[in-house]
Design brief:
With 82 residues, this protein is an all-beta fold. 0% of the residues lie in helices and 57% in strands.
């Protein structure tokens, strides 16, 4: 089974080797058909500590790395300020 891949923005890079990524998903309401935006924050492992706040990153599912960390940064799509 392939691992899930999500794209989101880094909102915090204050921990060592960990970044907090905010992922925005859109979902249509089943009855009213209104498009709803949902935000969820994931803690992701950043081994080389190259991510900064505002970066757009792609993360993938991983084995549990700590109590709350289950994702790994695989690439930086866009740097902050570009």
């Amino acid at each position: 089974m392939p691992r899930k891949v999500l794209t989101g923005e880094v909102v915090s890079a204050k921990m060592q080797k960990t970044v907090v990524v905010n992922v925005v998903t859109t979902k249509r309401h089943p009855l009213y058909n209104k498009v709803l935006r949902r935000n969820k924050k994931y803690k992701a492992h950043d081994e080389d500590q190259v991510c900064h706040e505002g970066d757009l990153v792609r993360i993938e599912e991983a084995r549990p790395l700590s109590r709350t960390k289950r994702w790994r940064v695989i690439e930086i799509v866009r740097r902050a300020g570009e």
